[in-house]
Design goal:
Elements lengths: L1 E2 L24 H14 L46 E2 L32 E6 L8 E6 L2 E6 L12 H4 L3 E6 L9 E5 L6 E5 L2 E5 L14 H10 L5 E5 L5 H8 L3 E6 L2 H13 L8 E4 L2 H10 L4 E6 L4 E3 L5 E3 H14 L1 E11 L6 H15 L4 E4 L13 E6 L1
Helix pairs in contact: 3-4, 6-7, 7-8
Length: 401
């Protein structure tokens, strides 16, 4: 197995130019101003653009779903099945990932102006200690700020920063595993719920009323960009633990036929709305409700294969049959099952945000899964978006087999 090691982490350089930048940050508001300046050097925020009106599906020809598209076990796939065990997460929350925990790879250093990011109106505006504001994590959602705090009270000073930062509304969510509450409005004019944001030129639905997670994992933006650049028309892409199907939307926008698997029917329905928001016909793709391991067994029994697979499971789960899944113990089994379904020369995107799992151990799990599947692989490290300036917790590996 060929492995390229993860690059050494470098702290982001301070950007002292720009209209927001104080010369010597000394107060929380000063640190906020410096953080916003850093985002400007990254090409964020980009000017908001109106949400495109979905065109009729015939105007955007759908990928083929004939035999070459390998319909993925039609019974139970598009509409789901209620027989699959329910999995509940037991992990502590990490900022921006709902119920998932964290683990450090490396964020690329920020030096001067970064290349422009394709139209994106949702990003990490403040990333805790990485922006000298420990315990405060702010996601700007088209100007509506989702303020997440960890072990600290509401930072009331933010309410006075509207002239400086231009936020449209402030929402507060406490990162507390024992009290998973949806965000609540603190200040400003709320957007209609749900509302839309743009990421990498595509439109996604968010909903601050939906619970602990709001609809989009923005720490995966670099991996989504990689998928967009890698997918080719008419390829078959499998998205496991799909949530609201952002990776599927990216792949479908490039002409792929996608299969999205998730335990939650509401999440898959949300994913279908994301398809429609981008003038992509959900009926041309597959949505499978249920346990991922069970679906992988069913796919293998039917000799289904894919050109690309996205694998980003929760850190810990337990199904109704009592089976426990732990990334550090069981991830290799998922890797092995996925590689058995992968076309020769295809790719598997592996990702985890488990804080206690080292990069080396993660690669070892991937290597073990490849050995079990009898596949020779090549591994390349992914990265986190540069606006995540704090602990670079998300590990991603591009596996070619």
């Amino acid at each position: 197995m060929e492995i390229h090691t993860f690059p050494a982490a470098s702290p982001p350089a301070n950007a002292n130019g720009g209209k927001f930048a104080p010369s010597m940050p000394s107060s929380p508001a000063d640190h906020l101003a410096a953080a916003l300046t850093r985002r400007q050097t990254m090409g964020l925020p980009t000017p908001p653009a109106p949400t495109p009106t979905p065109t009729p599906h015939p105007a955007n020809p759908a990928p083929k779903r004939g035999p070459e598209a390998q319909p993925d076990i039609s019974r139970g796939c598009s509409e789901g099945t209620e027989r699959n065990p329910r999995i509940t997460s037991k992990t502590a929350p990490s900022p921006g990932r709902g119920d998932r925990t964290a683990s450090p790879p490396n964020t690329p250093p920020i030096s001067g102006a970064e290349p422009p990011i394709p139209e994106t109106t949702i990003f990490r505006a403040v990333d805790g200690s990485g922006d000298a504001l420990p315990g405060i994590f702010i996601d700007s959602c088209d100007g509506h700020w989702l303020v997440q705090t960890q072990d600290i009270p509401w930072p009331a000073w933010l309410e006075k920063t509207q002239p400086l930062s231009g936020w449209r509304s402030l929402w507060w969510k406490r990162l507390d595993q024992h009290a998973k509450e949806p965000p609540r409005l603190i200040a400003g004019e709320p957007p209609p719920q749900p509302f839309t944001v743009r990421e990498l030129g595509l439109t996604y639905e968010l909903d601050f009323r939906a619970g602990y997670s709001q609809g989009l994992f923005i720490d995966q933006r670099i991996q989504k960009s990689w998928v967009a650049a890698t997918v080719r028309p008419q390829q078959r892409i499998l998205n496991l633990f799909a949530y609201t199907c952002a990776f599927s939307v990216i792949a479908a926008s490039r002409g792929a036929v996608t299969t999205s698997v998730d335990l939650s029917r509401p999440s898959l329905e949300w994913g279908k709305r994301n398809f429609s928001l981008n003038a992509l016909d959900p009926a041309a793709h597959f949505f499978c409700k249920g346990d991922v391991a069970e679906w992988l067994r069913r796919f293998a029994a039917k000799d289904r294969t894919w050109h690309g697979i996205v694998l980003d499971p929760p850190t810990f789960s337990r199904n109704d049959k009592g089976r426990v899944f732990r990334v550090e113990k069981d991830f290799h089994e998922l890797v092995s099952a996925c590689l058995r379904l992968l076309e020769p020369g295809g790719w598997l995107l592996c990702s985890t945000n488990h804080r206690a799992l080292s990069e080396r151990d993660f690669l070892t799990l991937i290597s073990r899964g490849a050995a079990d599947a009898g596949r020779a692989i090549r591994c390349e490290p992914g990265a986190m978006p540069p606006d995540f300036t704090g602990e670079p917790y998300l590990k991603s590996v591009h596996v070619w087999g």
